[in-house]
Design a protein that fits this description.
Number of strands: 0
Shape: globular
Number of helices: 5
Distance between the termini: 24 Å
Strand content: under 5%
Largest sheet: none
Order of helices and strands: HHHHH
Structural class: mainly alpha
């Protein structure tokens, strides 16, 4: 699931809190977090694991950065 999709599922009354908490977890500004959500800024590879954990793995590393984290081959 894309981060924007995940964010849209959060009730409007809780969205500001989500951005604030993610901002604190990543040590980034709220503007940067909004840019990540809107797809205006590429998420740094070292932040991907934090976001994946923060979203309880609903948004995966592959969803965030498929160029760095390709899908694992299930047949192997």
């Amino acid at each position: 699931m894309k981060l924007a999709q995940y964010f849209s599922m959060i009730p409007r009354t809780e969205r500001k809190g989500f951005i604030t908490l993610m901002s604190e977890k990543l040590d980034k500004s709220a503007v940067s977090i909004r840019s990540y959500i809107n797809g205006n800024r590429r998420i740094q590879a070292h932040d991907v694991q934090v976001i994946e954990n923060f979203t309880h793995k609903v948004v995966t590393k592959h969803d965030l950065r498929p160029d760095v984290f390709p899908l694992e081959d299930k047949a192997a």
